[in-house]
Specification:
Elements lengths: L2 H24 L32 E3 L11 E7 L7 E2 L5 E2 L5 E11 L4 E13 L2 E9 L6 E4 L3 E8 L5 E8 L2 H8 E2 L2 E2 L6 H4 L2 E4 L2 E4 H7 L25 H13 L27 H13 L16 H14 L7
Antiparallel strand pairs: 1-2, 2-5, 3-4, 5-6, 6-7, 7-8, 9-10, 11-12, 13-14
Helix pairs in contact: 5-7, 6-7
GO molecular function, one term: heme binding
InterPro entries: Cyt_c-like_dom_sf, Multihaem_cyt_sf
Protein name: Cytochrome c domain-containing protein
Length: about 325
């Protein structure tokens, strides 16, 4: 066998080996608190639990650029202790007060006519002693309760997509160790989505269109210290009316940068995909063919590595269009 062929075979093997070693390095994490066996004990919802109506002391939030998770829809909530506030860090990330809880619930719409939902899981982050602790809760079949799970699970789901087409997926509820691999940065568990640039958006609340960021400041949930003024809003990468470059960078930020940064699980790579990172320092110019290839394939080499089991066609098309714009003289297939 020629040396070139041997090297070609060796590269994927080395990549997988390094990734597995990184995952194993993070798998030693242990929670500092004991989680309740049932989700209902945290009091996130009022009335019928499956209606997902937040309790009065719980806040709903949305993201300008959401993480793709096999086309699942998500409800995001946070709950902070009374009279406490969230502060803004120089990095644009948020410093939640002691005792804060973040909850993210994943569901599919299984019958668009009656707006019926199939709720699969809720993930919790609870902050204690300045550390975040993580747990996953799997919803039961009657949709009356969700139970703490340590092993993860798979569930076959039939749902209706945004084009009113029925689709099927073997949805994977990750184990805590799988989730921690992406949430761990610089040796600590960190939230990924809620940061200044990703919370600057308008959303509909009880029929009114509201500036979400200003809404939280007005309610004194977030302390405005002017650090957020210069932080650019992440665009909705699904909005084709917005700038292509900004859409693509926002997509890479939320779906890839939590691993591909100097403090993430893929810090041994040459990519740094945060939205705020100057293009010449991202590594995109060097790695763009591999980025496109890894997004398109299935199996062990697929990217994003965790949290997805199927291809994100729209995301692939977006990034492909973006790199083609950057490199018009290098057409891609």
């Amino acid at each position: 066998m020629k040396i070139s062929k041997i090297l070609l075979l060796a590269v994927p093997i080395i990549s997988i080996t390094v990734l597995l070693l990184s995952l194993n390095r993070f798998s030693t994490f242990k929670n500092e608190i004991k989680f309740s066996p049932t989700l209902s004990s945290y009091g996130f919802f009022q009335g019928k639990m499956s209606n997902l109506i937040p309790s009065p002391n719980v806040e709903v939030f949305e993201l300008s650029a959401p993480l793709f998770s096999d086309y699942a829809e998500k409800q995001r909530l946070f709950k902070i202790p009374k009279d406490s506030t969230i502060t803004i860090l120089k990095t644009g990330k948020l410093d939640f007060p002691e005792g804060s809880i973040l909850a993210k619930t994943f569901f599919y719409r299984i019958d668009d006519e009656v707006n019926a939902l199939k709720i699969l899981e809720t993930r919790l982050l609870i902050k204690k002693d300045s550390r975040w602790n993580f747990a996953t809760y799997q919803w039961n079949e009657p949709q009356t309760e969700a139970f703490l799970t340590l092993e993860g699970a798979d569930s076959q789901i039939n749902w209706m997509d945004n084009n009113n087409k029925y689709r099927q997926i073997n949805y994977h509820i990750p184990s805590p160790n799988e989730c921690i691999a992406c949430h761990k940065s610089n040796g600590k568990i960190q939230p990924i989505g809620p940061k200044v640039g990703n919370l600057k958006k308008w959303f509909i609340n009880q029929g009114d269109t509201i500036d979400q960021w200003q809404h939280f400041i007005d309610k004194k949930l977030i302390v405005s210290n002017n650090l957020h003024d210069g932080i650019e809003k992440l665009p909705d990468y699904n909005d084709v009316q917005k700038d292509l470059t900004k859409r693509a960078r926002a997509y890479l930020d939320i779906n890839c940068a939590h691993c591909h940064n100097p403090l993430g699980i893929a810090n041994y790579k040459t990519l740094n995909l945060g939205y705020e990172v100057p293009y010449e320092k991202t590594g995109i110019a060097l790695k763009y063919p591999k980025i496109i290839h890894r997004m398109k394939i299935t199996g062990d080499l697929h990217m994003p590595k965790l949290g997805t089991t199927i291809l994100h066609d729209e995301g692939y098309d977006l990034i492909k269009e973006y790199v083609q714009q950057l490199h018009r003289n290098k057409p891609m297939r």
